[in-house]
From TrEMBL:
Stretches with biased composition (Low complexity): 215-232
Segments of this protein annotated with the region Disordered: 197-232
Protein name: Guanylate cyclase domain-containing protein
InterPro entries: Nucleotide_cyclase
Amino acid sequence: MRAKALHYWIMVLDVENFSPRENPVQRAVRRAMYEVVEDALSATGLTDKGVVMEDRGDGILILVPSTVSPVSLAGDFIRELHDGLRERAVLTSTAAATRLRVALHQGLASRDEHGWSGDAINTAFRLVNAEPLRDVLTAAHLAHLVFAVSSDVHRDVIRHGYRPLDPAAYLPMRFEAKHGQPIEAWVTVPGYSAPPGLPPLDAAQPTPVAPAHPSAPAGPQTPAAQAPASAGTGASAKTITISGNTVQGDLVAGNKTVHVNGAYPGLR
């Protein structure tokens, strides 16, 4: 009997630099990954929504029924996932640090006695394994995760600016998958005004600004990731200098004071 294909929101999580670690460390990282994911699902009310998780060794395939709002996934769930990883980073050794690449797509998937399959699932894995996405997480050395959405999800969900989503925090990413298949996606890094490390496209890209939070590890930063001292008052004041006409804040970093230096036609 042929399995019925149903529509799902398809999310894939993958741990950065998992394979080079020793076996005991891999087990600790996997345990941390599952605890953070389960806590995030619970905090966003998704635990009892028919969400399916399939283990992939160094990551997880998550299938969410189409009745669940994708805004909850791209907004609340990603925020909870990021916050959980950030809190664990304070208590975790560098060897067992867990940083994630996360991708969201949509499409048909079907299940047999061995697991889930479908072209949409393949696309989600191509997104999470894309070299440009790996480069972004490497460049965003203060980040705990990087999040990519397919062009379909960006067109239907992200660009409309449903709260708490911030379309201005996403930039396009293009790459070639297997057999030369061109794929376009959109990338954001919680805590950054724009994802660093993306190869240049035709349109100009804003300068990314790294977050400043107590759990950020000490170490050298690139000039683009260093924000100037705040011109505001109070411990919570933040100042970000960025070239552009209009810049919106992102969900995790909170409110910002933005100074604009000159015209920047590539930014809307």
